[in-house]
Input
Amino acid sequence: MQPRNMSMSGVVDLAAVKAAQEAKAKAEQARAQAAREGGTGAISPADLVIDVDEAGFERDVLQRSAEVPVVIDFWAEWCEPCKQLSPVLERLAVEYNGRFLLAKVDVDANQMLMQQFGIQGIPAVFAVVAGQALPLFQGAAGEAQIRQTLDQLVQVGEQRFGLTGLTVDPEAVPGGAPAAPERPAGPHDGLLEAAVQALDSGDLSGAVQAYKNVLNEDPGNEEAKLGLAQAELLQRVQGVDPQQVRRDAADKPADVQAQIAAADLDLVGGHVEDAFGRLIETVQRTVGDDRDTVRMRLLELFEVVGPDDPRVIAARRALARALF
Output
């Protein structure tokens, strides 16, 4: 399977968020199964550094990022600075004892990944956290700088996404970590897959309709609800002039539709707190139908990000204060 397109500047990668949420559920199932079987679910220190290729990217990086921040080291055999940086990263991966996972990507063998991350030179180091990609540093870096960057990454993973890392056991057999169980096929899997394919290909109208088809038959389907919210958000911002939207929002602070349009752009651009804060402030300034319109859009954006996200939880509290 080809890796999904990743965001390079903190942009909310909606398909990646969905995959990470699914992976988190599978990881929790795996840990529960290991506990029932008397195991710990721990991995060996040797499993903290893995080689990743294009075929295994979604499984080894995107899905694992729902459990632990994944640091990606893009390197090549001919790259002398890489030969200095890579051993430092490998040593720190073991020292941090499961607080991040190091994935090594040989760019000569994985040109597509290099292009998708927009890498112009190596060494280059990125991270993926809960399905979202962000650049860490490029070129040579001192160990003090690397440690500071890793500390910030671990903090973001813990505080924003609740990623507490992996359990490491020096006695565990390398490669012996339990695999996540396969989810049984559901009655709407075909329709959901069609919706995902439409979303990935940019057919937003098709994705919206496919998710609605699922919800017509199964109104409580959480995956379809999330997918529909994502597809409708992308549909709303498709073709808009971002500069004009932001000018309108700045010039017309009392214009509900202008603030809603700007909040959509904020969210797609990865500025989650800004999107939520903008709409909460608008709720405070409005009454009646206008207030309800803003509140409903804010609830839709909560669905896009996910109800368990700490930013959503905080914004729900702020919304309650604004309303009552």
Residues 1-16, 178-183 have pLDDT under 50 and may be disordered. The CA atoms of residues 70 and 311 lie 21 Å apart. The longest strand covers residues 132-138.
